[in-house]
Design brief:
300 residues, 4-stranded mixed beta sheet, 24% strand, binds alpha-D-ribofuranose
Length: 300
């Protein structure tokens, strides 16, 4: 635990990922064979919790699984993540059908399942354990994200929103309460109407003047804007096996380290962590530990 005893709460999805290796992503009307099927623990929520934990943060995960969700809970526990705030419900756990093509690019079909069973009672119970200056991580794979933002902001909890997968409902969330936006080009374009990174940052600053931005740009690296300063980071080029969870890894490493390492150094760690992740298969299984990222940085 750090000096301020800041707690990291991730209220997010837990998915069973079924990953099919394919030559190319199935086209409309086409039937195609896959060469391999693998099962991994995933979900943007679970992946981000594991990335935070592997980078050294003490994480509390809140969410919902079905009676088939034991493996997801075990995966979190193996990573020293607190699972006591995860509800069990009478509904299949969330799952994702993921195609990974010969270039390592993926396409993902989601079934929300238990992830969509969050209710107001659970939100109130979970947030009662957290205080101002704790950090709350949210993605867009659970229901009632707007209610969680509103309730957390009442307690002055710092809110980090990764609006992924993007849906129009996000535009009606109380986005003025967000401390950090973590967005890729597509999500940034949906929120600002812009595609040029400089314009994206300036529209964010106009619309959400107190928010900080972490913008990931795929092969073009990443940009962070915080406290009036802009930081740039390139990617580390590695052979790509599977890009699934690369963004989740980047986010987890960034927020686990930024308070102690500063933004410039942390961006480098986060970028290195996602380079290691894309060189491996699967979602949570591809996320490195901090020492592996340090070794990677020593050897480049
Ligand atoms: O970000 C990757 C994740 O997106 C996968 O693990 C899948 O479950 C989907 O939620």
């Amino acid at each position: 635990m750090n000096e301020k005893n800041t707690k990291f709460l991730n209220f997010g999805s837990l998915n069973q990922d079924m990953v099919y290796s394919v030559d190319h992503t199935v086209r409309p009307g086409e039937t195609t064979a896959s060469s391999k099927l693998e099962f991994f623990c995933g979900g943007k929520g679970l992946n981000q919790s594991i990335a935070l934990a592997r980078a050294g943060a003490k994480v509390f995960h809140a969410g919902c699984v079905g009676s088939d969700g034991e493996r997801l809970l075990e995966k979190l526990k193996e990573n020293d993540i607190d699972t006591s705030l995860i509800k069990k419900c009478d509904m299949p756990s969330g799952h994702a059908i993921i195609q990974v093509d010969k270039n390592g690019q993926n396409s993902i079909l989601l079934f929300g399942g238990a992830n969509k069973q969050i209710d107001e009672e659970q939100i109130a119970r979970v947030l009662s354990d957290f205080k101002a200056s704790d950090k709350l991580f949210l993605q867009n794979e659970i229901n009632d994200v707007d209610k969680i933002i509103a309730a957390a902001s009442e307690k002055s909890i710092e809110i980090i929103l990764n609006p992924s997968p993007f849906g129009d409902e996000i535009l009606s969330y109380p986005l003025d309460k967000i401390t950090w936006f973590v967005v890729n080009e597509t999500e940034a374009n949906e929120l600002t109407g812009e595609s040029d990174p400089d314009k994206i940052l300036s529209v964010f600053s106009e619309k959400y003047p107190s928010a900080k931005i972490l913008l990931t740009l795929g092969s073009e690296g990443s940009i962070c804007k915080a406290n009036g300063k802009v930081y740039h980071q390139k990617i580390f080029n590695v052979p790509v096996a599977d890009t699934t969870a690369a963004g989740d890894t980047f986010l987890g490493f960034f927020f686990a380290l930024v308070d102690t390492h500063g933004i410039e150094s942390t961006l480098k760690y986060a970028s290195a962590a996602s380079a290691v992740a894309v060189s491996r298969n699967g979602a949570s299984s591809s996320i490195p530990k901090l020492y592996e990222v340090e070794d990677f940085l020593k050897n480049i």
